[in-house]
Amino acid sequence: MLHKVENAILAEENEQLSAIMDQNLAISKYILAKQPDDQILNQITAMLGVDAYIIDSFGRLKAKNSTADIDEELLAYTSKDLDLINMEEPQTLFDRYTIYPLKTIDKLTRRFVIFAVIPAKKSAEDLLISNMVNLLSLESLQVHINVTNERQRKSEVFETIIAQPIAKESFAGILKLNGLNIDDQYQAFAVDEARSQNTGNHQFVMHRVADYIYWYFNKINQPVILMNWNFKIFALVKETPDLPDILPNLEKFLLAHFPNERNLIGYTMYQKSLINFQQLLDEADKALDTAKNRQLQKPHQYNPQQVTDVLRLVPKKEATIFVDAVLQPLFELKVADQEQYLSLLMTFFSSNESIAKAAETLFIHRNTAFYRLQKIEKILDMDLNNADDNEKIRLAIQLYEIWY
After folding, report:
1. Same domain, 117 and 233
2. Where would I find the PucR C-terminal helix-turn-helix domain in this sequence (predicted)?
3. Are residues 238 and 286 in the same domain?
């Protein structure tokens, strides 16, 4: 009799396990077919008989099954109070939900599944939920890859431009292809970790810091573009009057997660269109250098000290009116000639008006540089040896470098 009971129990358990395996197979096929998250949850909740939700690492709702209600109290708690970054084990919420962290490469882009049920008591139910969590983790790995690729693609665009300057027309086209508006106004800040600067671990530390900066700005719904330049982190953020308030909070956030490191921050409050991002990086870099030299305990704002810094304070409208008035004849030339002449003027003035140095920098013969300068004088109807004309052209070129 006892033997028959044992066989009956084993048969029942085998039947349950077989059903679970069939259900797992059905869900895995659904996930591999790259079905929308809502549809995947519909399939899972049909098996479990409970509502299910997926949230991101910011606590924001990303998907739910079609019949589930949106619990505003739950979402307010997950987005504001729950420490999702450091969650490693399932937790019970409000005595009616259980949240499970999904496995992924990076906990900052990890997602979570919430079932409207307290932890299962029966082994079969527990096994079924565990398997669903594992299957959703596979899907979350793909989400992580997609998010990382998008972020990395934008960063690489700017890092490439820094390393290999290209014409602004080409750069503008690249930005548009990546969904960025060249006319949007941006500000910038720079971060460097002081204690690891002279160690081989510095680059690894900065990559980790960049991940947390990216997470922090997404948490406050502020778009950010991060890039690495000269072993430091540079960030471009859309114009925000709150930047002086955001950065001290960012510094506290980084200190909380990297208590043994000292991250210094420099930033600029000036705004420029995205196509002029390198000028923003320069300003943020100068502010960061000051913060490092003085070991400042709070983010340092860029303060103009040179002539070109002061010129950046000239409003764009007035600056472009002046530039157009002086250099308009050059703007009417073919693009290739226009860039050639403007490049020569910029190099000529930055070389203390030495034709020989300008020619050497541009890899052209001195006579070629001299001939082109004469042609520029004729086109502009000005004389570089005339003090007034020289001052106008120099100022127009400096403003051109800032605003165009």
Report:
1. no
2. 342-398
3. yes
Q: Are residues 172 and 295 in the same domain?
A: yes
Each residue's pLDDT tens digit, 270-291: 888 888 888 899 889 888 988 8
202 in any annotated domain: yes
**Exposed e or buried b per residue across 86-112, where buried means at least 16 C-beta atoms within 10 angstroms of its C-beta:** ebeebeebeeebbbbbbebeebbbbbb
Helix, strand, coil percentages for the chain (3-state, nearest 5): 60, 15, 25
| pLDDT for res 2 | 40
DSSP 215: H
289 & 357 share domain: no
pLDDT tens, residue by residue, 176-235: 887 788 888 999 999 998 887 767 788 888 888 998 999 999 888 898 999 888 889 999
The residue among 263, 279, 303 that closes a domain is 303
* Coil, strand or helix at 305: coil
Residue 73 has pLDDT above 50, yes or no: yes
Which is it for strands 112-115 and 97-101: parallel, antiparallel or unpaired?
A: antiparallel
Q: How far apart are alpha carbons 264 and 261 in whole angstroms?
A: 10
Kindly state the percentage of the chain with pLDDT values over 70: 82
CA distances 296 to 253, 263, 267, 301, Å, are: 17, 10, 13, 11
